[in-house]
């Protein structure tokens, strides 16, 4: 029972982060399952089965709060489902030891770009509102879905920064659309795992525990992303991307850094991230005060000329 309660709390925390930042549910949950000895295929299958329920609840909540662009969901979700099914089916015979560091390096570059762009300039406006093209979203969805199944997580870390970096969709709708389309990915991956490994190694009580925690967190996360300022949210997402992929690279066979090297780097990333968030919050408050004064001056002028 204690283990099931712990899994439910992990599901709650993972969904709260995923629903607010558009990533990290699979990575968090899969890491715990692997730590207690679950095989990679069974761990990924367990998480994806739970995600069928959590992503459905999360998508519904994001829709209710106006965080979903359905055109983006369709354009990225269907190719994502294809990639997820392929990744799940061939997980037992595929190695991601080489692919993971390469992907982490690309995501790290995107994370730096997102953090600098949102912290320094705020919400991108020059492309905002322009449609995201299928020729961009389809390959992105295919790769993200494949990585998500083979790595036990990756739909958010791959899809969210790429769409944010385009500057064509505001952060809350990027996160809402990624979370909603993940339902298709979770269903396809689950079907792929059933075809590939059956139900062997999957503990359905663990699935239900993760699902229960995620269902509680889904509406809370959707509310948070609706009310967090885009500039602050963009900086937060950028920091998560940088920290996650820095950790992956330092632990990879490419680098295999010692603790004496890793911890100072982690400390530097945390300090830079904290400074970026503090700056974004200050600038948001300053801009909001400036806009308030402009509105007040406009109202005074209207009363004076009336």
UniProtKB/TrEMBL annotation:
A Pfam family annotated for this UniProt entry: TauE
What the entry lists under PANTHER family is as follows: MEMBRANE TRANSPORTER PROTEIN MJ0441-RELATED, MEMBRANE TRANSPORTER PROTEIN YTNM-RELATED
For this UniProt record, give its keywords in alphabetical order, as a comma-separated list.
Cell membrane, Membrane, Transmembrane, Transmembrane helix
Topology class, membrane: Multi-pass membrane protein
**Where are the membrane-spanning stretches?**
72-92, 98-116, 181-198, 204-225, 232-251, 263-281
Query: What is the name attached to this protein's record?
Result: Probable membrane transporter protein
Which organism is the protein's source? Answer: Umezawaea endophytica
- One GO CC term on file: plasma membrane
Entry's localization field: Cell membrane; Membrane
Which family does the similarity line name?
Belongs to the 4-toluene sulfonate uptake permease (TSUP) (TC 2.A.102) family.
């Amino acid at each position: 029972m204690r283990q099931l309660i712990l899994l439910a709390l992990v599901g709650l925390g993972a969904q709260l982060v995923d629903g607010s930042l558009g990533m990290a549910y699979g990575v968090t949950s899969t890491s715990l399952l692997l730590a207690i000895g679950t095989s990679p295929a069974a761990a990924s299958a367990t998480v994806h089965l739970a995600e069928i329920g959590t992503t459905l609840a999360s998508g519904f909540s994001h829709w209710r709060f106006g965080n979903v662009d359905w055109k983006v969901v369709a354009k990225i979700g269907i190719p994502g489902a294809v990639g997820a099914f392929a990744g799940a089916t061939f997980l037992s015979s595929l190695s991601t030891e080489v692919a993971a560091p390469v992907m982490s390096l690309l995501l790290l570059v995107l994370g730096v770009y997102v953090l600098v762009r949102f912290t320094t300039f705020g919400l991108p406006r020059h492309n905002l509102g322009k449609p995201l093209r299928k020729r961009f979203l389809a390959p992105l969805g295919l790769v993200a879905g494949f990585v998500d199944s083979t790595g036990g997580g990756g739909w958010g870390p791959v899809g969210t920064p790429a769409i944010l970096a385009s500057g064509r969709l505001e952060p809350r709708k990027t996160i809402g659309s990624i979370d909603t389309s993940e339902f298709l990915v979770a269903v396809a991956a689950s079907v792929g795992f059933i075809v590939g490994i059956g139900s062997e190694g999957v503990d359905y009580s663990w699935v239900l525990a993760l699902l229960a925690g995620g269902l509680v967190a889904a509406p809370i996360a959707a509310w948070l992303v609706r009310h967090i300022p885009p500039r602050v949210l963009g900086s937060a997402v950028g920091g998560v991307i940088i920290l996650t992929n820095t950790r992956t690279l330092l632990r990879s066979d490419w680098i295999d850094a010692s603790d004496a090297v890793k911890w100072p780097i982690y400390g530097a990333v945390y300090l830079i991230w904290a400074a970026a968030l503090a700056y974004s919050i200050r600038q948001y408050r300053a801009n909001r005060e400036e806009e308030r004064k402009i509105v007040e001056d406009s109202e005074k002028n209207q009363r004076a000329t009336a």
